[in-house]
Design brief:
Protein name: Metallophosphoesterase
Helix content: 25-40%
Largest sheet: 7 strands, mixed
Pfam family, one: Metallophos
Strand order of the largest sheet: 4-5-6-7-8-10-9
Organism: Escherichia coli
Strand content: 15-25%
Distance between the termini: 59 Å
Number of helices: 22
Number of strands: 22
InterPro entries: Calcineurin-like_PHP (IPR004843), Metallo-depent_PP-like (IPR029052), Metallophosphoesterase_sf (IPR051158), P-loop_NTPase (IPR027417)
Radius of gyration: 29 Å
GO molecular function: hydrolase activity
Length: about 625
């Protein structure tokens, strides 16, 4: 398929008022395509339009577009699918159509679908006239086109996801009968196109359709979501690329334009072009392989984790400097610590790995440890593990909650909107999947025993599993569950243990495996692991430095910086100083500037301490300066 250039856009939104503007944009689009066709040495161009061609589905709007589409069809191949704006809603009896749409998606029949989409007749006539191919297979909501323009055949499937659209629709309103989707004969080089991104589907229906797409298609194209700011590209798996295209004309968003993609073997090259008022500027360029690397699976049951929150989950809590110059993420170096069941009276209770706590080891769990043991990091890893198991999870921070009398509904709603893309509390709570709640630093939530119990009670009724972290200095930690505790007898308490020899070696191995020399040669990896663990064991044995991830990673960093001797006789504070100094060095701060910066940091630390705050606005910090 090296000789085909695919062009995709959506949301033309032509009305008689903006006709001149649309003509200008599409004329410029044709000019850019012609240039790219020559530069990229492509013989064929296939234009894929993913919905909202008209503004209100009226025959006059399609007539106004006819000349432009005739020009495009003469030059290129055209395939399109409808969007919600391709409905003429004035054709409907609103009461009768609502009754049709209230029928369960599993029981909807062809007559109901035909009635609910009868306002799309003008679109259907337009599509039939300007589509370059006849479908080889079709249902009343789906079409399959078989393309043979090069040495390799492929198919393009279109869906009419807008059949059930409403004049004012919201995320979760869309449903699509699964049996109406025409499936291709395998995902290789097969494309599916529909208007609404999956986040607009009813969650259970969206999950089923997502699974069909994963199995049958290599590329899924959707129209613009109307609430996003720009082009969006994503992956559902290692085989499927999800592309939410730019709109040609949508004043709700800042960027209008189109995109192209080229299929190069197993990879896909995607290029974007944004409107500058006169023509289109070439913008971002993506490879499917790069997107897969940047974003693994962040979706569970059609609930997509917010990118900003995912970045938080991958943060280690300190800026470690690795010899590979790679910014370390949690998945790079995380090692599950061992835990001990505190309900067992025996002092030498058999320890177990903390990763087993997610595998039917009780539904109410308390993890207890000191400030260096990585309690927060464990919860982050549990969050990622839960998502990968196609379950739902929510994270709450006791330091943000602060008081036990917080409004639970608002608390959960804020968490859901910040952690998931375009999801509400109602959608989260009503979705039929196992739900896990993670509460970090529960000891920071202020309140007496009764108020803390009242805080937990509605959460216990809502979530199937609750995992809480507590400081070992908390008065509720490590004690039997008695009347003076806010926790019921259902909770099992586990102590997070320090790293022993085996886990230290495993951590060193993960650190060293990121080095280029160790990747290329196993002998080098074994040598590095042996050298690192010997140094770490010596320091821990002589100076009683806690064998926890924070100190161990700091030691590994110092070993590679040839400064490990400085840390052999150091107190805890020097480890923090070492991390700060290393980070400043990586930011190109000169050594002669360090004294000034450390004086500033000291004053800033006192400022935060005196004001009893952990963060402050930029304006206040400028005043402090």
């Amino acid at each position: 398929m090296d000789n085909i250039l695919f062009v995709n856009f959506s949301d033309i939104h032509l009305s008689l008022k903006n006709k001149a503007n649309i003509e200008k944009k599409i004329a410029a689009l044709i000019e850019v395509i012609e240039i790219q066709k020559i530069l990229k040495r492509k013989e064929y161009v296939i234009i894929l339009i993913s919905g909202d061609i008209a503004f209100s589905g009226q025959v006059e709007e399609y007539a106004a577009l006819s000349e432009l589409f005739r020009i495009m069809k003469e030059k290129y191949f055209l395939i399109m699918c409808p969007g919600n704006h391709d409905h003429n809603f004035s054709n409907y009896s609103e009461v009768a159509r609502k009754a049709m749409l209230d029928i369960s998606i599993d029981k909807i029949d062809d007559a109901a679908i035909a009635f609910a989409s009868s306002g799309m007749e003008s679109y259907k006539i337009f599509e039939k006239e300007f589509s370059s191919f006849e479908p080889v297979e079709e249902t009343d909501l789906s079409k399959r086109y078989e393309i043979d323009l090069s040495s390799e055949k492929f198919s393009i499937v279109t869906l009419n996801t807008a059949w059930c659209s409403k004049l004012h629709e919201r995320g979760g309103d869309i449903s699509f009968p699964e049996h109406k989707i025409i499936k291709s004969s395998g995902p290789l080089n097969n494309i599916i196109m529909f208007h609404h991104p999956l986040s607009w589907f009813e969650p259970n229906n969206g999950k089923a359709i997502r699974n069909i797409i994963r199995t049958n298609y290599s590329i899924a194209l959707t129209g613009h979501e109307h609430i996003s700011d720009s082009f969006k590209i994503d992956t559902e798996s290692s085989t499927t690329l999800m592309i939410e295209s730019l709109p040609i004309d949508d004043h709700h968003v800042s960027e209008n334009g189109f995109m192209t993609f080229e299929i190069e073997g197993s990879d896909i090259l995607v290029s974007t072009y944004t409107w500058n008022g006169t023509t289109y500027d070439e913008g971002q360029v993506f490879l499917k392989s790069d997107v897969i690397e940047l974003k693994k699976s962040l979706v569970s049951n059609n609930f997509e984790v917010n990118r900003k929150f995912h970045d938080f989950l991958q943060e280690l809590g300190a800026e470690y400097i690795h010899p590979s110059s790679k910014k370390l993420m949690l998945d790079d170096v995380f090692v599950y610590p061992n835990v001990r069941d505190l309900s067992d009276d025996k002092e030498q209770t058999r320890k177990m790995s903390s990763n087993k706590l997610l595998n039917n080891n009780g539904n109410r769990i308390i993890l207890i440890g000191d400030e260096f043991c990585g309690k927060s990091t464990i919860l982050k890893k549990f969050y990622l593990d839960t998502i990968k198991k196609e379950k739902l999870v929510l994270y709450l921070d006791g330091n943000i909650i602060k008081k036990s009398n917080k409004n639970t509904t608002k608390l959960l709603n804020d968490a859901i909107t910040s952690q998931y893309m375009n999801r509400t509390l109602a959608e989260f709570m009503t979705y039929k999947a196992e739900k896990t709640l993670l509460i970090d630093d529960f000891h920071d939530i202020k309140g007496d025993v009764n108020s803390l119990r009242d805080f937990l009670s509605p959460l216990e009724k809502t979530f199937d599993r609750i995992i809480i972290t507590l400081s070992d200095s908390c008065k509720f930690a490590g004690t039997d569950i008695i009347e003076s505790s806010p926790f019921s007898s259902d909770y099992k308490q586990y102590q997070i243990l320090k790293f022993g020899f085996r886990l230290r070696y495993e951590l060193a191995n993960r650190w060293n495996m990121l080095k280029e020399t160790c990747i290329e040669e196993r002998a080098a990896l074994i040598h590095e692991n042996d050298s690192s663990t010997k140094m770490i064991n010596t320091i821990i044995g002589k100076n009683y430095i806690p064998s926890t991830p924070f100190f161990l990673l700091t030691m590994l960093q110092s070993i590679d910086n040839e400064q490990s001797s400085d840390l052999k006789t150091s107190s805890y504070g020097y480890y923090y100083q070492f991390l700060i100094t290393s980070s400043l060095g990586s930011a190109s701060v000169r050594k002669e500037q360090l004294d000034e910066i450390f004086n500033y940091i000291t004053e800033l630390a006192y400022y935060f301490y005196k004001n009893k705050t952990e963060e402050d606005s930029k304006d206040n910090l400028w005043k402090f300066r």
